[in-house]
Specification:
alpha+beta; Jelly Rolls; seven-stranded antiparallel sheet; three-stranded antiparallel sheet; 16 strands; 24% helix; globular
Amino acid sequence: MESETQSREQGPSAEEGRTRRIGRPLVDGTPTDGPTLELDPESAASARLRQSPRPLVSDPVSETWATLLERPDSGETDRPVLLQWVSPTSPEPPVHSHSATETFRGLEGQTTVVCEGEQIRLGPGESLTVEPGQKHTFRNDTDEVVAFSAELPSMRTVKGLFTAWGLAHERGSDEDGTYPGPGPIRSLVVAADLAPETTIAMVPLPIQRLLWATVGRVARLAGTTGIDDAYLDASFWNRHVEQPEWK
């Protein structure tokens, strides 16, 4: 695990009336009362979003928003770079490990990365590289939305995230406004497609493999699919997530 402190630069704080509400789930082109991202248009994260060649995406289940800044299959970089916003109420992702490094870089607020049980707070300009095989997760321990970028192992990781998030939008919300997500069976099949690049630590790997070979196999035979490149399509997210309108 490598930690590096860089220059600490952060955009100006939001002034009253400046904050914009974006990122709400769309139904037939109309924003719902679902999770909302409030941004200062002059902030550092907003500047990166404004420069992004791709749309804002979201996971209404975990109240997470992201935009893919760089992708290697477009010849832009060696590794995909995902800019993410995490709400104070967002649950931390399950503890997991990758077969390649993952580098977190703080942009706004204080992001907590937990690596092999050690809690590291990343502020603007600070970075942390998680080595292959190290168990880790991240969370927001503050009262404000935090923003950071992550250099992910490969596009397969991005496709897995976007598939799970896209399925959550397609499934929609319950009557009480909560989003149930893609469901356990579809999540199992997506997880199988992510292995061995990404392994969830909360369930022993032999049990996961057994589930993939039994329940997962039956699900696939019944037509359940895993990672789907269709969720990388900008048009999907333009239809399902409220996009910013910069002036």
